[in-house]
């Protein structure tokens, strides 16, 4: 067996395959982001003041995806990245059929639950696999490439699906695009994607066995070490999932700061996904105009990560995380304070750039403080909290909008939360 080599150049073909995989994963979720909120009113009568019911599909999506993220890393360490990736695509196969034949909103919620499984398993594996194959000092670049590919697809999917919906109608348009993308993703995952866990094990051999999980200098990781004869991976003790979850969620202040930031930043994306299309229509914009503005957000987010990911490797994680959180918070508040399409478009781009600053950098920062033997597990804990933010944010916005019988207060909730979360990172994160 040839010696495994790390680095983007040495594994370029497989990294390109993984970038195509995350592109297809991005297409899968992107197809639903503007069409499903539209279906809520036109097909299922959830318009008017039924704000809480409108948010249910994102609450379910976030809850399911967060749990899948938590277990995806652990499963991939035990069963391999490729098997988890394939399982994620299989879970997505019924989604187009559920949306095509849905007699009520409950079927749409069920489809988004399956979408959460798909996104949690597949998106996680595409990133883990690329981290496995590349050098440890390329984490920011890898995160940037991964998120660029995924979110460029989210933006593109909105445009393509809007065209298909215009030609074939919402249900058939979603069915045609969804079936094509999901089947292609599954076939390519089976036929061309390689298992990358051997590269992760090779990383372990290059890493001192007593590397602290905290990344906080003198702090040790005794709370995460199991007995020497149990759960060993590449010569390094492997903690249980419960130990890793407790450690990352509470005991380690760096990981706690990163996890809360990941959770809160999803408030912004949930606002864009659920609230913004409805709010723009209430401001007398057409669905096409609303989709175009939201597309600017996703496109700037995706493209800018090609810059911000490598920049975090060079200049450090903390400035980009804090700056991105604050930029998003300011942009969200400006949306509700302005009244022109031109300004809304500019603000959408501002929020997208803020997301580009913080999004790949948060994942890279978690990887910084995670030794390779437990990296997938600790990244899984981070992704659990990050995508649980969809559920917390959507539920909070739905309840607030229902109580206020309007949407404006949801912007203030999200904007202030982003500013405070960024301040938390600024004050407590010290891995610079």
From TrEMBL:
Residues 219-232 have a biased composition (Basic and acidic residues). Residues 14-432 form the Major facilitator superfamily (MFS) profile domain. InterPro entries: MFS (IPR011701), MFS_dom (IPR020846), MFS_trans_sf (IPR036259), MFS_Transporters (IPR050171), Sugar_transporter_CS (IPR005829). It comes from the Bacteria. It holds the Pfam family MFS_1. Keywords: Cell membrane, Membrane, Transmembrane, Transmembrane helix, Transport. It is a multi-pass membrane protein. Residues 210-235 are annotated as: Disordered. It is found in: Cell membrane. This is MFS transporter.
């Amino acid at each position: 067996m040839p010696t495994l080599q790390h680095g983007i150049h040495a594994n370029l073909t497989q990294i390109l395959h993984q970038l195509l995989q995350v592109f297809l994963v991005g297409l899968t979720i992107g197809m639903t982001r503007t069409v499903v909120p539209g279906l809520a009113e036109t097909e299922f009568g959830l318009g008017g003041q039924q704000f809480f019911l409108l948010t249910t599909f994102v609450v379910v999506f976030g809850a399911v995806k967060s749990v899948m993220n938590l277990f995806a890393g652990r499963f991939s360490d035990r069963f391999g990245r490729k098997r988890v990736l394939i399982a994620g695509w299989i879970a997505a196969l019924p989604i187009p059929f559920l949306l095509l034949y849905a007699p009520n909103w409950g079927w749409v919620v069920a489809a988004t639950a399956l979408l959460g499984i798909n996104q949690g398993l597949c998106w996680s594996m595409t990133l883990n696999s690329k981290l496995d194959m590349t050098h440890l000092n390329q984490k920011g670049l890898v995160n940037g490439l991964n998120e660029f590919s995924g979110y460029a697809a989210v933006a593109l999917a909105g445009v393509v699906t809007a065209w298909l919906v215009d030609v074939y109608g919402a249900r058939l348009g979603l069915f045609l695009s969804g079936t094509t993308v999901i089947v292609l993703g599954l076939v390519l995952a089976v036929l061309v994607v390689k298992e990358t866990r051997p590269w992760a094990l090779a990383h372990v051999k290059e890493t001192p066995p007593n590397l602290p999980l905290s990344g906080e200098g003198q702090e040790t990781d005794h709370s995460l070490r199991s007995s020497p004869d149990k759960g060993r991976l590449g010569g390094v003790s492997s903690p249980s999932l419960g130990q890793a979850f407790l450690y990352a969620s509470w005991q380690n202040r760096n990981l706690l700061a990163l996890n809360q930031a990941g959770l809160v930043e999803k408030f912004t994306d949930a606002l864009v996904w659920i609230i913004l299309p409805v709010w723009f229509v209430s401001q007398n914009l057409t669905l096409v105009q609303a989709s175009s503005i939201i597309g600017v957000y996703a496109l700037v987010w995706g493209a800018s990560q090609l810059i911000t990911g490598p920049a975090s490797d060079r200049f450090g994680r903390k400035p980009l995380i804090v700056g991105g959180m604050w930029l998003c918070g300011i942009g969200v508040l400006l949306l509700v304070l302005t009244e022109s399409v031109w300004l809304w478009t500019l603000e959408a781009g501002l929020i997208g750039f803020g997301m580009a600053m913080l999004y790949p950098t948060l994942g890279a920062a978690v990887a910084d403080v995670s030794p390779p033997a437990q990296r997938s597990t600790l990244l899984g804990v981070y992704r659990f909290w990050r995508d649980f933010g969809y559920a917390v944010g959507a539920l909070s916005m739905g309840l607030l909008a229902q109580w206020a019988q309007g949407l404006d207060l949801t912007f203030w909730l999200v904007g202030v939360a982003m500013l405070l979360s960024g301040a938390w990172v600024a004050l407590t994160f010290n891995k610079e």
